[in-house]
Amino acid sequence: MSETLTLRQWLLTDEPTSRRHARLASLYKGWLTLRGNTMAMFGLGILVALVLMALFAPLIAPHDPYVQNLGNRLQPLGSPGHPFGTDSLGRDILSRLIYGSRITLYIVTLVALIAPVAGLLVGTVAGYVGGWVDVILMRVTDIFLAFPRLVLALAFVAALGAGIENAVLAISLTAWPPYARMARAETLTIRASDYISAVRLQGASPVRIITRHIWPLCISSLIVRVTLDMAGIILAAAGLGFLGLGAQPPSPEWGAMISEGRRFILDHWWVATMPGLAIFTVSLAFNLLGDGLRDVLDPKEGSQ
Amino acid sequence: MSMIEIEGLNVWFGHGPDRVDAVRGASFSVARGESFGLVGESGSGKSTILRAITGLAPDWSGRVDIDGQALAGGKRDRAFFRKVQMVFQDPYASLHPRHSVDQVLSETLHLHGIPDIDARVRSLLDDVGLGGRFRFRYPHQLSGGQRQRVAIARALAGEPEILLLDEPTSALDVSVQAEILNLLTDLRAEHGLTYLMVSHDLPVIGHMCDRLAVMKSGEIVEVMDVGALRAMRAEHEYTRDLLAASVAPGPHSA
Amino acid sequence: MNLLDVENLWVKFPTRQGVVEAVRGISFSLGRERLGIVGESGSGKSMTGRAILRLIRPPGMIEADRIALEGQNLLDLSEKDMRTVRGERISMVMQDPKFSLNPVMRVGDQIMEAYLLHNKVGKAEARKRSLEMLDAVSIRDPERVMRAYPHEVSGGMGQRIMIAMMLIPNPQILIADEPTSALDVSVQRQVLNIMDDLVKQRGMGLIFISHDLNLVSEFCDRVLIMYAGRIVEVCDADKLHQATHPYTRGLLNSLPRLDQPRAKLEVLSRDPAWSEAPSVGGRA
Ligand SMILES: Nc1ncnc2c1ncn2[C@@H]1O[C@H](COP(=O)(O)OP(=O)(O)OP(=O)(O)O)[C@@H](O)[C@H]1O
Ligand SMILES: Nc1ncnc2c1ncn2[C@@H]1O[C@H](COP(=O)(O)OP(=O)(O)OP(=O)(O)O)[C@@H](O)[C@H]1O
Ligand SMILES: [Mg+2]
Ligand SMILES: [Mg+2]
Fold first, then answer.
1. What DSSP string runs through B8-29?
2. Taking CB atoms and an 8 Å limit, are C103 and A192 in contact across chains?
3. CB contact under 8 A, C103 and A14
4. Hey, which of B142, B143, B149, B176 would you mutate to test ligand 2's pocket, going by the most ligand atoms within 8 Å of its Cβ?
5. Interface pTM (ipTM) of the complex?
6. Helical ranges in B69-114 per DSSP H
7. Does a cis peptide bond (omega within 30 degrees of 0) precede residue C58?
């Protein structure tokens, strides 16, 4: 008992004794801030559940998501053995949702890794370097922005071939321009500030200034923006799936499930609604978590 | 030999109708180990001269020699940054909001290639009168005076020979100002530093500097020594106004 | 009646290490006068100013028996009514002017926006008035400054822009938090004259927060000296140099003086008893 108490005190100290101590203390304080935010914890809980669900899908799922049973098709909610009902081919919707979380996580993780990083890179370089580099990079960004997103993604998938990986790539390629614009706008105000001048006077290279000094300031708004975009990303993947260019049937991708269920929306609403609810819940969770993370990432929040 | 030699310096920002000629034809020189003051109207280009020297205001013409070496444009090499450092006017704007004091100082030491960073950070903090307590704080946890001391520690980290000080104490209260001015005096005595110091506070300049230049709308109107300042012997009308205003009939001068 | 009456004001910040008390039970009043607040860094000057406007960010808390503006207790007002008070009756010039300006908006647009918010006039008129105001705070070349972004103006110009903006609504009370710390003496005098006119002619009340003792003693009518969240001494401004509290004396002695050169400035040595002593009332 007293052992844990001293650990807590050690972590909460006002005067860390070493760099490692300081880092641990700030991580712990960040965690406390996040924990104090009920909504963010709620979001985090959902996402943790999603990850566990994806990891242990074979153990949790009551049925095989691919086994068809045409005699048992379009069962309503709460029918015996199928709490979420079955779809038009008689497959258990709950099991498909559970297995589908793997695909959803996969898509979300990849896009969230590629698009914001690309946007951040282009935006901060354009904003910091300025001049013709800025002009060229921003023109390229404008060109990407000018095309409707799905059309562009279609073109990419058509060129690269259908499949989840290519769909992810296509979505990422169409998702980065807004991040680039945002990062550039922030970089322009940061670039003029005295603390950037000060580190230039220490002889820091532009690469160092961009990665160590500008990125940390852009990242929090970027994270919030990305979490807000998650719903759109999942839906875009679904859209590609629907057009036969993303996840291929019979894969239980949530978006593909919606578009499949769309045909029966009037008589058998749950077939489309259940995956829709799943997408909604996950996007909400991302939003809530993103909001909480912003408070943690900004050490000024709530303390000044 | 003079440490800083400036002749016919013009600095401008922008171009076309928005061009601002912030400094016009400024000339002065600062000897090694001297402390030189720049005073003058707000917006008269004092900060701009410092920024031109450090390459932060790249559009300039004229001659600037540092320790006998001529500078050009906005590019400066590492050797220059080892020799010349600057403390900015606004302590609220000159520290990165997401970097702790430790990060600021150790990064600076790393950039200057100084070994044994851990011990150096501690001794730098001691030098500026901030104990280890402050080492892992973020700027928003520091008062204005404490921030300015961190900024001074950062400028001292590379052991420069020349310190450019842009109103180092104007945002600080008098008790902290006294501490920082004493600190700067000690550092100069210990390390033989050369100071170029901007301030609008004539008593502060009088306390710190050997000579000073008075600026008005981008031009240097007068270079005088501190004896003349104390004796209120000014040549130019603007300087006389400035002197008169700073010792205006107030209860304290009675 | 006094314009402003503050009774037993506390500002507290709960933190994980305990409660930080930034202001500890101070009382003072403000008439149509120039009231100076001086004190060292961290003594709670800015927090006092912000607390009057209820501008302390959570988790910070304001507690007071009364903060009365012409008899009306500001603590009872709704947040919405408080916004009107902030906009029209009490203005505040914040300590770090450049942070209060929007970095990506031209200075002129910001001034005009503030002007249009309070006056029903056309754009051209607002522009003309904005130029006049910049001129009044002795900014040379106001046309160019209108087009500039905040990072393109010098430190002192930023301060003057903020002052010009705060005077737009013609407030009853102006709280100026170190408004002239980046100004040279001659411009400082012009800015002070503007404020002086407002006090003398329009009967405005001015709270002038500063660390410049000489300036306060010349410019203000009354001075509160704060230490560690309390008022340790109140005196008439012209008697500031005869102040008796050792803290005030220490502050006065740490000033460099043109006529008395010395090698080392005196540094304040603090006595823990100062922060224990009860607050002095600051009522006129
Ligand atoms: N980046 C910039 N772009 C355009 N104009 C600028 C820029 N920086 C400074 N200026 C202009 O140059 C002039 C001189 O500015 P500077 O900052 O050198 O003044 P200063 O003497 O330091 O004044 P203060 O005492 O108020 O700080 C001002 O008119 C200012 O508007
Ligand atoms: N969010 C916060 N949490 C904890 N303490 C705070 C917070 N904000 C301010 N304080 C404390 O309140 C005290 C008073 O601060 P305030 O800004 O009023 O000082 P000041 O007198 O204006 O000083 P300066 O002259 O440096 O501006 C300081 O000691 C500061 O550390
Ligand atoms: Mg300046
Ligand atoms: Mg303050």
1. EEEEEES-GGG-EEEEEEEEEE
2. yes
3. no
4. B143
5. 0.85
6. 78-83, 101-111
7. no
